[in-house]
Design a protein that fits this description.
This protein has 202 residues and is an alpha+beta fold. Helices cover 17% and strands 18% of the residues. It has two domains: 23-71 and 148-202, Alpha-Beta Complex (paralog of FGE (formylglycine-generating enzyme)), CATH 3.90.1580; 90-146, no CATH class. Mean pLDDT is 87; it is low at 1-6 and 11-18.
Length: 202
């Protein structure tokens, strides 16, 4: 598996399927929020990003109005797609995928190794969207679907009549209208002692 030496996670280099699946079943409903677009400062304003990942320097980007889903695609939504199309993901075809080292649910013999650049991710045989932590785990329906490559996501979108947001659209939406802030809610990681995101703390 080829990987990106950027921030956090190995990235499989995959090509989209030549023939994208057509929907037969009714795709799940995607609740959206409409965003007005406009100019924003894209990139890391704190000098902590990776230039190779395009996170620096900060630069002005203009975005057209667009809609974005309120939540991520869940396991249940992805299962509807798979049941309708018999689609097989890259992780399922390859027979392995990367799992965070504290979450592995697999026999020792199924842990195939780690990438030297990101040793907190382990390559686990049998990890896929149905088994997010390895073959001894099972995906819960209301959780976000994981172990999905770019090509897998494009196939889902084609079936559901959707498209993926661009990187700029995603960052614009994720900033929550707060330019230059570290998080979507401000600069403090745990305001009032509350965790508002998951940074490997559990």
């Amino acid at each position: 598996m080829q990987t990106s030496m950027g921030c956090c996670v190995p990235v499989a280099r995959v090509q989209p399927s030549a023939s994208l699946p057509e929907p037969a079943a009714v795709p799940p409903r995607h609740e959206q929020v409409l965003l007005p677009g406009g100019e924003f400062q894209m990139g890391d304003a704190f000098g902590e990003g990776y230039p190779a990942d395009g996170e620096q320097p900060v630069h002005t980007v203009r975005i057209k109005p667009f809609g974005i889903d309120v939540t991520t695609v869940t396991v249940a939504m992805f299962r509807t797609f798979v049941d309708d199309t018999a689609y097989v993901t890259v992780a399922e075809r390859d027979g392995h995928s990367a799992v965070f080292h504290l979450a592995v649910a697999a026999a020792r013999s199924d842990v195939l190794g780690a990438d030297p650049g990101v040793p907190w991710w382990l390559d686990v045989r049998g990890a896929d969207w149905r088994h997010p932590h390895g073959p001894l785990s099972a995906a819960e329906n209301d959780h976000p679907v994981v172990h999905v490559s770019w090509g897998d996501a494009v196939a889902y979108c084609a079936w559901a009549g959707r498209r993926l947001p661009t990187e700029a659209e995603w960052e614009y939406a994720a900033r929550g209208g707060l330019p230059g802030r570290r998080f979507a809610w401000g600069d403090e990681l745990t305001p009032g002692g509350m965790w508002l995101c998951n940074i490997w703390q559990g």
